[in-house]
Amino acid sequence: MDLKRRILSTSLLLFNTHGYKHVTVRMIAQELQISSAHLNYHFKKRIHIFEALYEEMMLSFEEQIKEVPKSQSNLQRLKYGFEHSTRWMVDYKFFWTDLYNLVPLSQKVQEHFKSVYQNRVNGYNVVIQALCDRIMMSEIKNINEKTLLIKNLIDRGNTWLYSEELYGESVDAKLLNEQINRLALPLLPHLTRKGKKEFYAVFRI
Questions:
Q1: Nearest-CA neighbor of 157 among 117, 122, 196, 130?
Q2: What is the chain's alpha carbon radius of gyration, rounded to the nearest angstrom?
Q3: Each residue's pLDDT tens digit in the chain (205 positions)?
Q4: CA dist 124 to 6, 63, 105, 121, 135, Å?
Q5: Are the C-beta atoms of 86 and 167 separated by less than 8 Å?
Q6: Are 4 and 42 contacting, i.e. CB atoms less than 8 angstroms apart?
Q7: How many CA atoms does the CB half-sphere of 60 hold within 13 Å?
Q8: Cα distances (angstroms) measured from residue 63 to each of 57, 68, 70, 94, 155
Q9: Which DSSP helix (H) or strand (E) runs through 174?
Q10: Which end of the chain is more exposed for a tag (fewer CB within 10 A), N or C?
Q11: Cβ–Cβ under 8 Å, residues 10 and 28
């Protein structure tokens, strides 16, 4: 493993353990048993390590999404996406448990995160339309209601890990499965009888 990769791996471990704001470049260098000057050759500032980890995190998520089986139903694919995203968020816990403080630190991250948000809005619109086309979901004619539903789905996805950390919950397989079900729950009231039948079969609530 080259030094740049080791710096990122060690930084991620320290950020996840102590939180980004409590980890200094010197702490990272000490953990790696190198000088701060040696570390600075690869990353001039701590924010540059953060930006590199953010880019790595997003590329990792994009690769996982590509693996979602196209042969599955919309609800099965949604669950598959939730399963991967929850585990992925745990891998980069430091970011998702301090989201509102970290995103504004970097204009680069802030701009990308906004574009990701719009992509997620578009993605949920596609899912909702597909469910409606299959008569699994009632059409939401009120555009404001539909917009709020999608915002609710995205906000839940962004903040569930922060909430669990806040209440001191340990993240294990049982908790992750519970969160996957909770992430999908806002869709339930809008599903038809056919949609609810598949929902309960897929999410097993």
A1: 117
A2: 19
A3: 699 999 999 999 999 999 999 999 999 999 999 999 999 999 999 999 999 999 999 998 888 777 766 667 889 989 998 998 999 999 999 999 999 999 999 999 999 999 999 999 999 999 999 999 999 999 999 999 999 999 999 999 999 999 988 888 788 889 999 999 999 999 999 999 999 999 999 998 7
A4: 37, 19, 28, 5, 16
A5: no
A6: yes
A7: 15
A8: 10, 10, 15, 21, 22
A9: helix 173-184
A10: N
A11: yes
Tokens of 161: 């890990």
Distance CA 205, CA 200 (A): 6
Report which DSSP code applies to 67: T
Neighbours of 93 (CB within 10 A): 19
AA letter at 195: G
Q: Which of 50-62 are b and which e, b meaning 16 or more Cβ less than 10 Å from the residue's Cβ?
A: bbbbbeebbeebe
**Distance of alpha carbon 189 from alpha carbon 68, whole angstroms:** 25
* DSSP label of 34: S
Residue 191, beta-bridge partner list: 137
CB–CB of 137/128 below 8 Å?
A: yes
